[in-house]
Design brief:
CATH topology: Rossmann fold
Structural class: alpha/beta
Strand order of the largest sheet: 2-1-3-4
Number of domains: 1
CATH class: Alpha Beta
Order of helices and strands: EHEHEE
CATH architecture: 3-Layer(aba) Sandwich
Distance between the termini: 42 Å
CATH superfamily: Response regulator
Number of strands: 4
Length: 84
Amino acid sequence: MPSILIVDDEEPIRVLLRKMLEETGHSIFLAAEASEARKRLEGQDIDLILCDVMMPGESCMVIPCAPLPVCNPVPICSSRENPG
């Protein structure tokens, strides 16, 4: 099964996605921020990155090609609470 890196600053989102994807047999790796995601990419063979766009600090938009010779596919997931 493919390995998936989930990058999201909100732990409940990471846990929910991990649970859903592990049930389908995928290998799941988690990162709470862009720098942690890059470290995971250096140490793991990742097939897919699910990344939250609106995270504090460095944007995850710089992650996909960072240390890798070939860009991974990166579906982007994000939500925003409606303040009104």
